[in-house]
Amino acid sequence: MANLPVTRAAHVIAFCEEFWRLGAPVQTQLERARLPALLEEQPDAYVSYIFATSFVGQTAAAEGIEDVSWLGANALRDGQLNASLRDAMFPAHTVSSRLKRFFVLSRIENSNLRVEMRAHGNRVQIISKMDISKNTPGRDAPNWTQVAFIIEAIRSIAGPDWAPATICFKTAFDVFHDALEACDNTRIITGAPTTAIYFSRQALSLRAQVASMPQAHDQPESVEMSDLDCLRSVLRPYFRGRPLAISEASEILGTSVRTLQRRLQEHGTSYSELVDTTRFSIAADLLTHSDRRLIEVAIAIGYEDLSNFARMFRKYAGMSLGEFRRAQAARA
């Protein structure tokens, strides 16, 4: 479970929007892939990367979509990136410094992503690694998106027409006609030793226009999640509107009930405690960022009895629901 690969829901939502546009039964496919309901309301939630790629692959196969990877990359937009990652990247003045920040913080987007840069004379190679089992449906879905984020990071300084000299994909596949047309100035190689892009080393020194630079903020130094934080992040989207049994949680996490219980015990907690702390976190967010009534917040996290919800909340907040909401309003 410590190595459970997760990805931000925003990237799954991007595929969902394209599938909706094509008339695909998205909700049915999400349920079939064991992804949480109401995913579109939780772009910053983390979901199982295995479930996400399975959803994309199975939906694409059912709808006869030939190159779902290109479909996803074509839907890529800047707002899809986590705000912390955008805030960290864009105060960087050069392509080189912006890429370095992206390399450090890219795991905010996908815990399975590894990016590195190598120099070969006058050429630069940026390698993107994302390991996934060969038997996973949709394992080729990230092909284009793996390199698209890197290209967009460079274009944010070099301009929208910038393109790498070469794009290599580790997977052997037939490149979709639309992709070939869009990348007519780029050589595309499939079945390569690794997924990577190549471009002139001179591009690293390109500088952003100072007038367009956002104000710098304190930036995160690390995005590593602890084992327990990873469990909470993956399970959190499933706590909307109903309890989550430990048998369901273990299935989502790809482990057995006994192994899940043992790992939680190693962290000095239990499944019931994990449930309560996760529910508390969701409730605190809803009370802070919405004007929902207390009973609506309770129902949203699976409580039918307001008094039981109130007792749980006081246990972790150290104050009543009303006191918490008033305190948050005073800070606003």
Describe the structure.
The protein is α+β, with helices and mostly antiparallel strands. It folds into 2 domains: 145 residues, no CATH class; 105 residues, Homeodomain-like (Arc Repressor Mutant, subunit A, Orthogonal Bundle), CATH 1.10.10.60. Helices cover 48% and strands 11% of the residues. It is globular and about 65 Å long. It starts with 5 loop residues before the first strand and ends with a helix. About 4% of the residues have low confidence.
Number of strands: 7
Number of H- or I-type helical stretches? 15
The radius of gyration computed from the alpha-carbon positions, rounded to a whole number of angstroms, is 22 Å
Mean pLDDT reading: 85
* Overall tally of domains: 2
Helix content: 40-55%
Shape field: globular
Could you describe the largest sheet, including whether it forms a barrel?
Answer: 5 strands, mixed
Q: What portion of the residues fall into strands of 2 or more residues? A: 5-15%
Name the poorly predicted regions.
211-223
- Secondary-structure-based class equals alpha+beta
Assembly context of the chains: single chain
Distance between termini?
38 Å
Compressed to H and E, one letter per element, the order equals: EHHEHHHHEEHEHEEHHHHHHH
Biggest sheet: strand arrangement: 3-4-7-5-6
Keywords: DNA-binding, Transcription, Transcription regulation
Domain HTH araC/xylS-type: 229-327
Protein name: AraC-like DNA-binding protein
Pfam family, one: Arabinose_bd
